[in-house]
Amino acid sequence: MNRSSTDLLQRVLLYVVLGFLALVFLLPIYVMVVNSFKPLEEIRGGNLISLPLSATIEPWLQAWSKAQIGVQPIGLRPYFMNSFLMVIPAVLFSTLIGSLNGYVLTQFKMRGATLMFGALLFSVFIPFQIVLIPMAKLLGMLGLAGTVKGLILVHTVYGIGFGTLFFRNFYTAFPHELVKSARMDGAGFFVLYWRLLLPNSLPIIVVNVIWQFTNIWNDFLFGASFSDFSSYPLTVALNNLVSSSTGVKEYNVHFAGAFIAALPTLAVYVVSGKYFVRGLMAGSVKG
Amino acid sequence: MKNRWLPALTLTPSLVLVGACVYGFIAFTIYLSFTTSTLMPQFELAEEIPYHRLFRLSTFALSAKNLGVFSVLYIGLSLLLGMVMAILIDQKIRGETAFRSIFLYPMALSFIVTGTAWKWILDPSIGFERTVHLMGFPDFVFDWIKDGDMAIYCVVIAAVWQTSGFVMALFLAGLRGVDTEVMNAARVDGAKGWNMYWRIVIPQLGPSFISSFVILAHMAIKSYDLVIALTGGGPGRATWLPSVFVYQYTFTRNEMALGAASAVLMLIAVSIVVIPYVRSELRQKAQS
Amino acid sequence: MKRTIVAGLVSIALASPVLAQESVEVLHWWTSGGEAAALGVLKKDLEGQGVKWNDMPVAGGGGEAAMTALRARVTAGNPPTSVQMLGFDIQDWAKQGALGDLNALATKENWDKTVPLALQQFSKYQGKWVAAPVNIHSTNWVWANKAVLEKAGVTTMPTDFDGFLAALEKVQKAGFVGLAHGGQAWQEATVFDGVVLATGGVDFYRKAFINKDKAALGSDTMKKSFDRMAALRKYVDKDFSNRDWNLASAMVIEGKAGFQIMGDWAKGEFLNAKKVPGKDFLCFRVPGTQGMVSFNADQFGMFKVGAGAQAAQTKLASAIMNPSFQSAFNVVKGSVPARTDVSDKAFDDCGKKGMKDLAEANSKGTLVGSMAHGHAVPASVKNGFYDVITQHFNGKLDSAAAVKAMVAAAE
Known about the structure:
The complex is a heterotrimer. In chain A, 74% of the residues lie in helices and 0% in strands. By secondary structure, chain A is mostly helical. In chain A, α7 (148-172) packs antiparallel against α10 and α7 (148-172) packs parallel to α13 (251-284). In chain C, strands 2-1-3-13-6 form a 5-stranded mixed β-sheet, sandwiched between helices. In chain C, strands 14-7-12-15 form a 4-stranded mixed β-sheet, sandwiched between helices. In chain C, strands 9-10-8-11 form a 4-stranded mixed β-sheet, sandwiched between helices. Chain C folds into 2 domains: 22-137 and 298-358, Periplasmic binding protein-like II (D-Maltodextrin-Binding Protein, domain 2); 139-295 and 370-409, D-Maltodextrin-Binding Protein, domain 2 (3-Layer(aba) Sandwich). Chain C contains 19 helices and 15 strands. Chains in contact: A-B, A-C, B-C. At the A-B interface, α1, α4, α5, α6 and α7 of A face α1, α3, α4, α5 and α6 of B.
């Protein structure tokens, strides 16, 4: 076989393998979406991957505003706001703190910098179950129990580890010459950070935002334990929709609800995908 | 002059917060693991150290064994699959953005959603097995999720699906960062295709491996939601992981001291595996 | 004139804090269908009395997630006004000093006389009422599809356990699934409740499950119970693992299976599917346990709250114990009222039977707390038993080993 047909064969094989993998990866979300448009009888009788015979958007309407979440049939809609109020500040704080930490750890000679970084990094391995009781005590003492502010604090604290990791690795690869010349021009501590490093950190900011947003948005344990009736986030509401112990399990509504709850994170991933890879490239993985 | 203490000052809030809320809590948990705590923390020390009882429990041994099986497979397969996907996508293909998004999106979903969706797919009576039956192969059997010995592999499948896209992104970034000079030189020397990847590129991906490893290890510890959504810990107790064990004993069974002891052991196990890796990465970076 | 008006307005403004709305925050896990609707009745009732209902639902695991959240809330110092709780959880929290005192209300409304003694053991702590019971469920029921039984040739209901096994055999031979079952530890334990009662009677059950008597737990009667579980295992279909209980009920409802051993919350599934007791489905006690009732009850534990919130809390407790609420709620839930003086008029035939059985068991002393549902042993021992029962059912232990493990779990 001559050169070009081997190459062609290889290309075809490449696309076949990629296509197969893509199908496998899409399967669960396909199942979720397809079954969320079926009426309940069709789900019970039918086949997981078949398209709906009598498609209906009723499950989506149910999940959004009519499904039983607790005592009232109000759907998931009211809880979106709680989640946003919690996630957005936490992500902002986490990005700020992470970038400052990364800046300080890489652009200044500090004794024990490696050790401090190691300590911050290792904090990501703490199992959340052991955090529950002591943190509840702490929040109670601070008067933040059951509030969105308390949740923001908790998520910020446990986001410090990854935030510092991302920014520190990014700033390690930041061109030294730029920093040196800025310093020679008289740039002080904050000017160096605010005017030079941070504005050029967009890719890693995107990485951090995606990571923190996803983790905080999808958290259940803290959301259920540190909130009260007025502040509990979307994950708790979704869990109430999906995990109720009795009653008819309306799988179509569950799937619609799960998809609705996942939309913000999916949007964040899809929209910033390009920057995500760029951000990972730019220093976080280079030696 | 200001420069002397300003960096340290900036770092202080993080160190204080993490020091208290992570290491402080770990110390608290270590203390609890020697007490008589049941429903809530109690500060009186127990006569028989909870660790003794822990080692007598068969569910603990089972959880530890499952963690071993799960971690090796989960981390290994995620790294392998992530690497393969990264290499495939790096081949200047059309629709790279689309493929990348498809492989990456599972990470956006919560463990609960992943577990629920895969529970459906893997269930013989409504999922994969049934679909194949309906396609005309009535003897096809795929009931791993109902089988005590095989169910843990179902957890692996769901977990690998969730995170291998992220690993792919890490490797892709690493691949793109590989020095083009080196690659050109290699090409001139006649290396091509898989050979080039194997000999030149992959060895340079050390940092990607380490970052992936940290992320995967972190996920393996947080696996509670996935296991519960996918198998409920079953069949029987077959898919218990330490995260499930810790939760069960601390909360469900009102045996906080025992739960604390198991959490401490879990942390030690993680440290043993993770710290050497991380230290070598830090040393590498410090040198460059 | 103006001054008087201003003075009047000022005094109204100063008085308005007193008119600030009373509210209760209720933590529970009734987030679906009938129960949520029934709880909604309570909510409306309270709103009519000027008390706002702040709902804090946390579903999952039959209350597991809610209890975890509760721990955090109490530790942080802001417990909810009232929490749905089962059995020993109430006692555990009372021991921590977290629950309030309802005696004033209880005496006024005469709870001591109307609530069965066996239940009071969980609602009271050191002589003080700390929780208001909503219902009494019982676990030793069998639900059967009448048509399936007729097709299989089962014409008379079995009256003892061996007869039950024979009936299961007939149903299986006729091509149906004998026993619809969901492979989750608590479901297996629920079946075990009935099996042990049928095999050893109430006294044995008490000795083993309430007194944790080692001799009873290690006895041949216990071994026989495990043997019977293994026998039941043969009549379960191959996909039973991790199946939700209501899907198992659905198997009976749809005529795929003949029997299900499940607590009376299963009745709700049948009623929701528009099935009629006696015509489409049958309800009877696990053969060999007629005359005995193993119960579990949902109660609303009242937490220690500030003086300002106590009036609302008292109103909540009173509304829960109100006979008309007890009737309305339990008709929907499938359980029977926690008070013995509620009329059975609104209940269906199975409900009426349940109430009759309860009254009989209460008077004869054959009313025992369900081990499977946290009304016999505390959570740590209960879960230890679960481990044994589910591993045995899944074939990881034989009956002799299971019996030994039960003794070990009771420590």
